[in-house]
Amino acid sequence: MLRPSDQTPSHCRLEHAVFLQIGEPSFRRAETDGTPVMVVQLGDREAALPLRSLQREFAIESDSPDGRMLGLIAASLDFVTSLRLGDALPAEVLTGEASWEPTAQHLRLAKAKLQLQLVAWLRAGTPDDQSALDAAALLAAAEDPAMRHQVQEAFGKAAASLGLAAAAAVVALIEGLAQELAYIEALRERLLQPVQGLVSRLTRIAHGWRGDASQLELLTQVRRLSVAAARQIGHRFDEVDAQTGEVIAALRNLDSQRAFIRTQRDWLYRTLRAWQPVLLEWDTASFHFDEHTRPALERTYRFLAPRFMPVTEWLAVNRPGKRPDGGQKRGMVW
Question: Which of 3, 78, 169, 312 is most buried, by the most CB atoms less than 10 A from its CB?
Answer without folding.
Answer: 78
